[in-house]
Amino acid sequence: MTSITLVRGDITQQFVDAVVNAANSSLLGGGGVDGAIHRRGGPEILQECRRLRASHYGKGLPTGRAVATTAGLLDARWVIHTVGPVWSATEDRSDLLASCYRESLRVADELGAATVAFPAISTGVYRWPMDDAARIAVETVRGTPTAVEEVRFVLFDDAAYETFARRLD
């Protein structure tokens, strides 16, 4: 049984097997969590992302998919990059957001990761409402068969932490 824990803090400072990056499809870094992971993890992450772009993902990583690279200088073994959907008021993209969590857990299982730290995917510049994002994240992790022992949601502020805590109860 996978345990789910919540941490208020910085995902780049977690001691885990894998850190999940809320990446953009280019895999070449960006803002928010993505930029923080690339800055703290160092150039090796970007080098592996460039290799992925040159080989398997020439057009970028599709939304809802996940792929792993080294974690560089992070206190983790791997970074699992996943591309969350941009929230839309007119189109239900919940399945794509759920896919980010399922695919990240699938990649974690392939790697043999026992501990995985997730951010609140798509809640930053992609504007997904926090309460709905927390619902999808918690339900998907609870409903996905995985060998991962601990899923840690690392939330940047008190409001996000409290929203996820309500969804866990």
Contiguous low-pLDDT stretches (5 residues minimum) are: none
- Which structural class do you get from the secondary structure elements? alpha/beta
Oligomer: single chain
The geometry reads as globular
Terminal Cα span: 17 Å
Helical content class: 25-40%
Q: What's the order of the H and E elements?
A: EEHHEEHEHEH
The total count of strands amounts to 6
Please provide a brief summary of the model.
Residues 1-169 form the Macro domain. With 169 residues, the protein is an alpha/beta fold.
Description:
By secondary structure, this protein is of the alpha/beta class. The protein has 5 helices and 6 strands. The protein has helices at 32-41, 43-54, 94-111, 130-143, 158-168; strands at residues 3-8, 18-23, 66-70, 78-83, 115-118, 150-155. It has a 6-stranded mixed beta sheet with strand order 1-6-5-2-4-3, with helices on both faces. A hairpin with a 7-residue loop joins strand 3 (66-70) and strand 4. It is globular. The two termini are 17 Å apart. The mean pLDDT is 97. This is O-acetyl-ADP-ribose deacetylase. Residues 1-169 form the Macro domain. It comes from Streptomyces gilvifuscus.
Topology:
Layout (H helix, E strand, L loop, with lengths): L2 E6 L9 E6 L8 H10 L1 H12 L11 E5 L7 E6 L10 H18 L3 E4 L11 H14 L6 E6 L2 H11 L1
Parallel strand pairs: 1-6, 2-4, 2-5, 5-6
Antiparallel strand pairs: 3-4
Helix pairs in contact: 3-4, 4-5
